[in-house]
Every structure is written in structure tokens, then in C-alpha cells.
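Example 3.
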Amino acid sequence: MKTKLDYYRVFYETARFRSFSTAAQHLYISQSAISQCIQQLESDLNVQLFVRTKRGISLTNEGKILYLKVENAIISLEQGERQLERLRHLEAGELRIAAGDTITTHFLLKYLEEFHATYPYIRIEMANSYSSQMLALVKEGKADLAFVNMPMEDEELTFEECLEINDVFVCGPDFENKEPYSWEEVAKLPLILIEKNASSRHFLENNFKERGITLEPQIEVAVHDLLIRFASIHLGISCVIEQFSKEELEKGMIKKLPLDPPLPARSIACAYLKNAPLSYAAKAFLELIM
Amino acid sequence: MKTKLDYYRVFYETARFRSFSTAAQHLYISQSAISQCIQQLESDLNVQLFVRTKRGISLTNEGKILYLKVENAIISLEQGERQLERLRHLEAGELRIAAGDTITTHFLLKYLEEFHATYPYIRIEMANSYSSQMLALVKEGKADLAFVNMPMEDEELTFEECLEINDVFVCGPDFENKEPYSWEEVAKLPLILIEKNASSRHFLENNFKERGITLEPQIEVAVHDLLIRFASIHLGISCVIEQFSKEELEKGMIKKLPLDPPLPARSIACAYLKNAPLSYAAKAFLELIM
DNA sequence: GTTTTCATATAAGTTCTCCTTATAACTGTT
DNA sequence: AACAGTTATAAGGAGAACTTATATGAAAAC
């Protein structure tokens, strides 16, 4: 770069209007400033850019060639500024969310729908995996937000709890359960649990382990909805998330199995980078949820 | 434009090196200057562009988006500057010449060959037409140089004479001519002349008209070479340009017909705009010729 | 554990760029 | 002939941008 970039802006306007004085008005500076600017530019580049006649100016061949490049550059910068404006006003951008299937289906879906309706020009990108990998996505900058089950810790991340959930045991409608069950009793029932590497499973097993109880499920399934289905057709007792099974509980497809004392509540949190600012889209989505 | 273009250059280098201090070294200014610059840019654009940690910086999403545009702009400007350099060093550019067939063939051709051999990357564009139109091309900026027969005048153009030419009458080898002819005698011979709108024809007729003689050619042709050919096969007496018929005269295909007094010499000139500077290529070509 | 090194941020002061005003010189128009 | 419009030039002033010096925190080296 042989010259100040600002000179190019002056050159651009001057070339556009083919006039020093018009460019001056347009840039809100004096004609004299333009004249000096162009002289400086010409001397920096060692090229005569304008032909000065007593009744105006015109571009030289070299000026015309330069203009093509300068025009392209200025347009590009203007595009950049406009793009940032659009991002700020949520008229463009993307929202990259990492979340498991269960949370997506039962918690995020309605917010995603609303968000998309409000900001239709923001592209939504979903990634789903296990908690640790989703947090990795966020740390690598490949996702803006990750929704994970608490408890969870990470030096680089902020966890913002956004939903309290309760794990409850459920049975089919024909199963007879009158009194509250003790934990030991429940452990002996034919259990249907979510697969081993799910964080819900860890939570459950850790709780029982604290009381010296090991859980040995009869059936393991990969998705939360199957826990409900299997229980409703009396394949066993499932441990499900109450808030995500509301409909089925109300319809009587499954019944809550009283546990004494109940499992402690846990929560779902949204994780994002501590040090990096959230994108405008992510910020808006987070506000929607809270 | 919401900010000084110069800030973008700082932004560009900073983003490239992902470091304020490295960018500072590269731009030969202090780290402090960079820091202040970026802060100013961020406040002008109302967007955080970098994430500052205690061990360096990284671009935010918005910064990355802006970077793409800024990079494009800077590259474009650098291309422009390089392009100008190439023009200056005759490693690029074009040479647009307007000249008639005769002048092109007998005068310019050898120079064009040499010019192209010396500056192979300069595109050569030829236009040929009548004098007035060629001058118009130059005035419209559609040609850099026009080669025309003198005398010629134009307020906006500079005419630089580059070759003196002599119009002579020639006959075939079998034609008997001993003594010098008077103008009246020549006018009565069976003449072969160039077509009416050629400037050579005007020149000739004006000279004869000054002596009260009107020329009535038996044959008119469009190109100079045919004048020679027709004379050589005894179709009549042609008026040709001595310098452009050298070879045929030396080979004896045609003979000079002595005229007393001879036609005044005239010249070919190169015409270019008075006020606009010549392109580097045109300047080089002109120097080659002179 | 302490020190050193390497980041960026901030404060204050100075330099020097860039802009303004005023004027000149010239063209074309009214 | 006077005027409106163009660019060029000179001189001086305002203020932006840079420098130096210092703070602060993190990682690396000792």
C-alpha cells in the first residue's frame, strides 16, 4: 500500500462525480481539501489520475483503470458495513445450537419456531451429540449455544440454567401402585432406562449409588419417547422427565410412580463461551428463552 | 461509510496476524496506536470485532464476517496499485492507434513489430478510417494516437510531424519520359489517382487548383498499392508517395516522372490530445518513432 | 514459587496531518 | 463586461492520531 486508504475514498467520489467541487460537497469538505488530496494521491502513486481543464476534470486512462479497483473496494466495504447492520438488527446471521434430541424436541422446539417466525432471515443450524461433544463445539466456536443437562462445569463456559426438570418413575395404566416406593423397592422393579452414555442415566445411577444401590435395567432405549411408550404398554417401569411427559401423564397413558424421597430436581442449562461475546442472534434467542 | 477507511487497513492487518502487537510492527506504529484504532473502529461500527483475552485476541463472528469484505477490498486496492505499476513499466496496458491503411502498411508496421517485441504484454489495437474520423476517435478518448497526413489543424490536438513524404508521378517501365513535365502536361496524361475522399487526393487537387488546373483521372483506386501496380502495367500515370514506393522504384517496376516544379513535400504527423497526458504505452511508442 | 516475558489497555502529551479560509487564475455564459 | 463556475495555491489553525510510559494480567521460564 503506497498511500492512505482515505485518499481512495476521495478519489472514488471525485471520479464518480467527475468534479472536485461536487465531490467536496458530497464529502462535506472543501474543494481545496479534495484538490490537495488528489495531488497527494497522484504523487504517492506516481501516476496522473485526472486531466484538469479549466472547466472541470476527467479521468486519465490510468485513472479509469484504478477506478475500477477502487470502486470494487469501496463497494465491498460498504457491503461489510451493511452486513454488520443487518446482523445487529437480526436481519441476517445464523444461530448455531447444539442440543440433544430430547431437549430439542421437548424444550427448544417451540422457541425455535417462535424465533424463526420473528427473525426469518436468520439461518438456524442444529447439531446434536453428547454433552461433552456439544460443549466442545461451543469451545471451538462451531456452535453459539449448547443446551445440556446440569450439573456440568467448564472453565471457559458460562452455564445459564433455563429449565428445572424432575426425573420420575412411571408405569403403565394397569400397573398397581398405591403407596410410595422406597428407592430399594424401585430398584427391584423391571426397569427401562435410557442408554448408558446419556447424562440422565449418569444422574440416575449416581443418585442410587450414593445409597449403595446399583441399577440393573431390563431394557435400555436410546430416546426418551420410547421410555414413555414402553412403560405405557407395560414393558416395565421407566424413568422419564416429568416435564417432557406431561401430555402422556395427563392422558393417562402412563402413571407417576411415587418415590420417597423423590429424586432431586436437576436443570437444563444453556452453555456459551465466557470470554467471547454472543452473536446477536444467540443473544436474542437466549432472551427469548429466559 | 461509518468510519475512516484507514481503520480498515489496521483492522485487516490485525485480523491477519491475530495480534495487535504483530500488526503494530508490521504497520510500523505502536501497539498502543493499534489498540486505540480498533477501539475507534468498533465504536464507529457499533460492533465488537475482537475478543480480547490476556494472551491475545481473536475475531468475533461479526469480525470474521467483516474481515471477508475488508480483505476483498484491500486486495482490490493492492491489485489497482500493482496494475498502475505495471502500466508504468509497460508490463501491461494497451496502445490504441488510429491510422489509414497506407500509413499503417508503409510506415507504422515496422515500429509496431518492434514495439510488440519489446513490450509483448501491451495489447495493440488498430483502428483505420478517414482522417477526420480518426481525429474524432482521439478526441473521444477511444484512441491514443492518430497518424494523419498534414496539413491538419485542431484546437484540442497536438500534431507531431514524424515523416516527410513526397508525392510523385510514376509510370510503367516502358513509358517514355525524357524531359521534366510541366503541371499542365501532367494533367493531360491518363491519370490514376487515389479515391476522392483520401487526404492525398485533396492535397494533390488543391495544389493543381492553385494553378487553375483541374485533374480528371481516368482511373480511381482505393489503396495506394494499386496505384503502383496499375502504373507498372501501363494503365496510366499514378501519383504515389515516393517513400512508400521505394522498393518498386528500385526494382524498376515503375519510374519516376519528373515534374517541374515538383509537388511540395508534406508530412505525416502523429496527433494526440493536447490536454490529456499520453498513456505510458503511447508515450513509449511515440519515442520509438521519433 | 518467583521472575520474566508477552499480551492488551489506558493516560497524557505532542506532533503533524488534514482541513479551512482566502485568493488567484482561467473558462464559458449571461 | 460581469458573473458563475472550475481547479490551484498559500498560510494558518484544529484536532486526530501517534508516541511514550505505565498498568495489568496470563503464561512461560527459571
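The first strand of chain A starts at residue 50 and ends at 53. The mean pLDDT of chain A is 90.
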